[in-house]
Specification:
By secondary structure, the protein is an alpha/beta fold. The chain has 2 domains: about 130 residues, Rossmann fold (3-Layer(aba) Sandwich), CATH 3.40.50.1400; about 100 residues, 3-Layer(aba) Sandwich (Rossmann fold), CATH 3.40.50. The strands form 2 sheets. The protein has a 4-stranded parallel sheet, sandwiched between helices. The protein has a 3-stranded parallel sheet with strand order 6-5-7, sandwiched between helices. Helix 5 runs antiparallel to helix 9. The radius of gyration is 19 Å and the shape is elongated. The two termini are about 35 Å apart.
Length: about 270
């Protein structure tokens, strides 16, 4: 059988390298590995690898070094733009021998909204919510205004999907916090406020935000099937912009692929990046 490394290095199918942040919570690594197994099940012929920005092995530079000078598409397992997507990951790609493209983050996208809605339903969200219902969309947070803009767009799309107010909130580096968002919604008369966990895996921030939920809290997105499809969508869109390109030039310029419009969101939702 041809190994993933051989396939990537001999000009065959570019490898998919999923780039996770990394976490000290052991549940995060097991969740990410299970998600990659879902991706492999959807596309068995595709070489799929894992690399981390920090905290967990394998680290991204080690994963890329193992690929030699093969072609790869790096898909961040991150839900918005920010420093890791715009600087850290491209710089790691530039320093490697691999020929890489860096795809856009997973959000905003209608598949992300699918996963968020499904997790809320699993937690007990009603089929027909009333005026007393509202949602806090909890995410990690970033000082980057583009990251906050992406989260706001995801919140708007989830609000359109559910038919209730959805307020974005953050665990760090941005405002409002989850308790602040809950208080604001309570002041507006909402008495059934759910927390939608906009995290890819369990960890400190996800646990911290869930503990502040006044009613139900959904589980992190984890291995939901829509997440596996979204990773493959970002991979395909990155390759759809042309053939493999020089890793150093694209990474130093901070260029990302796969974030152009083109998705087909539900008719009632705001248009989301493809």
């Amino acid at each position: 059988m041809t190994s993933s490394r051989t396939t990537a290095a001999t000009g065959g199918t570019p490898a998919l390298v999923v780039v996770a942040h990394g976490s000290r919570d052991p549940r995060a690594l097991s969740t990410v590995r299970a998600l990659l197994d879902r991706v492999r099940a959807l596309r068995p012929a595709l070489p799929v690898h894992l690399g981390h920005v920090e905290l967990n092995e394998p680290l991204l530079p080690d994963t890329l070094t193992a690929l030699g000078d093969g072609a790869a598409v790096l898909v961040p397992l991150l839900l918005s733009r920010g420093h890791h997507v715009k600087r850290d990951i491209p710089e790691m790609a530039a320093a490697s021998p691999a020929r890489t493209r860096v795809a856009g983050p997973l959000g905003p996208h209608s598949l992300l909204v699918d996963a968020l809605q499904a997790r809320l339903t699993e937690a007990g969200w009603p089929t027909h919510p009333g005026p007393e219902h509202a949602v806090v969309l909890a995410s990690a947070g970033s000082r980057d205004p583009e990251s906050r803009a992406d989260t706001a767009r995801t919140a708007a799309a989830l609000a359109a999907r559910l038919g209730v107010p959805v307020v974005p909130a953050y665990a760090s580096a941005a405002a409002p916090t989850v308790p602040e968002a809950v208080r604001a919604l309570t002041d507006r008369g909402h008495r059934r406020i759910a927390l939608a966990s906009c995290f890819t895996a369990p960890g400190r921030f996800a646990t911290q935000c869930a503990a502040a939920a006044p009613w139900i809290a959904s589980e992190p997105l984890g291995t939901h099937p829509a997440m596996a499809r979204l990773l493959l969508h970002r991979y395909d869109r990155a390759l759809g912009r042309g053939g493999a390109s020089n890793a150093g030039r694209e990474a130093r310029d901070g260029t990302t692929c796969g974030s152009a419009a083109g998705a087909r969101p539900a008719a009632t939702e705001p248009a989301l990046a493809g």
